[in-house]
Amino acid sequence: KLFFADWGSAARVERCDMDGSNRTWVAHAGLQQPAALALDLVNKYVYWLDISLQSVEVVDYQGRKRRAIVGGRQIRHLCGLAVFENYFYTFNSDNLSILRVSRYNGSDVQALARLDSAKELRVYQRRAQTAVRSHACEVDPSGMPGGCSHICLLSSNYKARTCRCRTGFILGSDGRACK
């Protein structure tokens, strides 16, 4: 799945398949500017930072169990969001510090380090990586991902795929080759 935030005419957090199909709202009411997203891959939760409401909220992948974790002055001027174990991590652009906050109730806010500037945070740790299983976009014997001449996108599950073409090309009738 692909998760993304949109705060155009109507702010929302959405999900879709990697090929763009099955687009679904995860959260849409009471949002203004959802920006940074972070996923809890194990428990299947989506966290987001609303920069206008100055809040961090969470919801499950189906849009249920939504709740605010923290908001207000405590988290002003934040950018970037990462989730790992019992905490979320973010960057306060006001005092240039990386913050660690309990992802369950917003308590235990700690400044970990100062940086000159940052816009995004990522946690890289073996336990944060999901195991990769064989999938429909694996390279075939001729060296093409999923048999696609340009781009292979996973579809509704890891066994299904959709081929797409780079700009200026059109997908052929076989659904694989770009012309």
Automatic annotation (TrEMBL):
It comes from the Eukaryota. GO terms for molecular function: Wnt receptor activity; Wnt-protein binding. One of its GO terms (biological process) is canonical Wnt signaling pathway. One of its GO terms (cellular component) is plasma membrane. SMART domains: LY (SM00135). InterPro entries: 6-blade_b-propeller_TolB-like (IPR011042), Cueball_EGF_LRP_Nidogen (IPR050778), LDLR_classB_rpt (IPR000033). LDL-receptor class B repeats lie at residues 1-43, 44-87. Coiled coil: none annotated. This is LRP1B protein. It comes from Psilopogon haemacephalus. The gene is Lrp1b_1.
